[in-house]
Amino acid sequence: MLYTFSAWFQISEGSESVSAIFKTNGSGLIRVGQVIAKHGCWTLLKGGIVANFSSNAEILFESKNSRVEIWADSISLQPFTEKRWRQHQDENIERVRKSKVRFQVTDINESALQGATVFINQTSSRFPFGCGMNDHILTSKDYQSWFASRFKYTTFTNQMKWYYTEAERGVENYTIADTMLKFTKENGISVRGHNILWDNPKQQPEWVKTLSPKELKEAAAKRIESVVSRYRGQLIAWDVMNENLHFRFYEDKLGENASAEYYAKAYQLDPNTTMFLNEFNTLEYRMDELSSPWNYLKKLKEILSFPGTDGISAALGLQGHFGTSQPNLPYIRSAIELLSTAGVPLWLTELSVDPNPKQAEFFELILRECYSHPAVEGIIMFAGPAVAGFNETTLVDANFKNTAAGDVVDKLIEEWGTKPQKAIADSTGSVEISLHHGDYDVIVTHPLTNSSITLNLSVGKSFPQETIHVKFHT
Predict the structure, then answer these.
(1) Which residues form the GH10 domain (predicted)?
(2) If we measure between CA atoms, which residue out of 318, 314, 317 comes closest to residue 306?
(3) Which one of 261, 350, 364, 369 is the catalytic residue?
(4) 127 within some domain
(5) What is the pLDDT of residues 398-420, one digit of tens each?
(6) Which sign does the torsion angle of CA 159, 163, 169, 170 carry?
(7) Is 166 among the catalytic positions?
(8) Is 186 marked active-site?
């Protein structure tokens, strides 16, 4: 069973993190979710668990500040079967990812043409569903063909990072990134820029780790100017300061506003590109308070309130590196719902699942959950071919034959709109079909003369509900 949990919280003074915890017989303590509760107003906590056990449970509320009283109200625990949860996902997909289209086929006299055939083929999807890419694609024709036939969105896994483009101080080399970008342009693939700076002290170029604060400030300014100016207007997004909830390399050396200053600078250099925060464990590990949804919203607010970020197109990136345990879909849904209150785009940016006997099953569960949520505007998987070193979530083996996870991805690509469809007009000459948002080529064939009419159709959230009339003049 899957359980969603919600409750309203207030505390007797100040502002504190409050967690909801289940204490069960034999299963220990299970953290359900957390919220930053305040004195003087009520705050909603939403979370959940997947229960593969039967037990009585106590519901406990925890704050690390033992001086405060915790007040809770409207506590709710709702059970769902896996079948009902999947049904809800499908209903959401039908509501937010698809629109109904009705064709009315007639002859020159406005008479209905029963039996007319309508062929529908999606040429592009409105939902960005892509895959990470690395430099092995430059030397492997099989990798190129496999990628270009499936994906129109990507993130270079390492090739734009500072330690890759300036391994030696003062010696910049963008050759690999430039060549990869050339390949994506030739194949109509949009690229997320990853990343400008990384707050993890271990992920700096070796020469950066020993710089004084003054030298670091100068080097970082040169880095951001160099990479953003080079690719200005060519990318759909930038991960500006990677993982700045977990790490503080720049804040510790340059001050508390370091991340915000770099967001302002990146926006100044490339104002028409979306600027992402990008963090791990927000969805995949509910025990990590550093990257909890509430802390993520707090960080976003800090950045957007900094001088120089007015008008910035900001977005939240959720990496989504899941381990071997069953994904907690209720918690994922609750986290996304909370993050959606920020009113900015939300993407899964590096989705992967560690190897385990149920890897493909878990991968599909996560993909369906995120695709079905209206707040999610894109998904990039950090997965791919074995020959390119994608060892965590491998989609094709050394011979480019699908793994089980690869089968899942191909099935979903087909299910989410790219499979050609065929429908036959009824006695009233009508065809009604539900289409995923995207662009389509439509061919309507006359039932008697076999003549055809070709249409181009764009289906989106604001798609008009009126009927599309197709009239044959022969």
Answers:
(1) 109-412
(2) 314
(3) 350
(4) no
(5) 999 999 999 999 999 999 976 78
(6) positive
(7) no
(8) no
